[in-house]
Amino acid sequence: FFAPGFQVAPETKAVMKWLRSIPFVLSASLHGGELVVTYPYDYSRHPMEEKMFSPTPDEKMFKMLAKAYADAHPVISDRSELRCGGNFVKRGGIINGAEWYSFTGGMADFNYLHTNCFEVTVEVGCEKFPLEEELFTIWHENRDALLNYMEMVHRGIKGIVSDKFGNPIKNARISVRGIQHDVTTGN
Question: Coil, helix or strand for 123?
Fold first, then answer.
């Protein structure tokens, strides 16, 4: 998952352990520096290709999740190409991470490959380090989009896998025909 020689920070290791211990199914990573929603894979299938579309087997689901956020965001959904993030307007405010730029070690890729959690990355504004007085506006621009995204947790297949006595089965593998990515049940 990580490039050779890549050092994993202690706090990153702690988050990785936490993600494996709780059966999260949906998350978002909030960044600054652009105005777009990206989805896995963030690392190109061909490492020498800097901007290469690299879909997961769950491409349709990830696009739906990213669009749920983007469509509910008042600026990302604005069709003006002259605004912050306007270069993503023709894509609906979303893009496959590796198609934008490829990098190794991202949480969205880790979550998809090593947990049951689907994560998108939300670039909340074009300033990497917004001023304190801008945070209130950024919060309000993202609040409804975050709520809309969180409601997506109710989409898809859900239920309890149990034995013939009704006892839940931990770590049962769930496969969906046509999608080469299994998930497992929690506790």
Answer: strand
pLDDT tens profile 142-177? 999 999 999 999 987 788 899 999 999 988 898 889
> Among residues 34, 123, 127, 132, which one is catalytic?
123
What is the pTM for the complete model shown? 0.89
The packing angle between helices 10-21 and 107-114, to 10°, is 40
Residue 130 to residues 38, 41, 81, 86, 141, Cα–Cα distance (Å): 20, 27, 22, 19, 14
Indicate if 123 belongs to the active site.
yes
Task: Give CA–CA dist 149/65, Å, rounded.
Answer: 7
Is the CB of residue 14 less than 8 Å from the CB of residue 107? no
3-state secondary structure (DSSP) of residue 74: coil
Q: In the chain, what are the domain boundaries?
A: 23-156, 158-186
**Separation CA 56–CA 143 (nearest Å):** 28
Residues in the chain, total? 187
CATH number, domain 23-156, options 3.10.580.10, 3.30.1340.30, 3.40.630.10, 3.40.50.300: 3.40.630.10
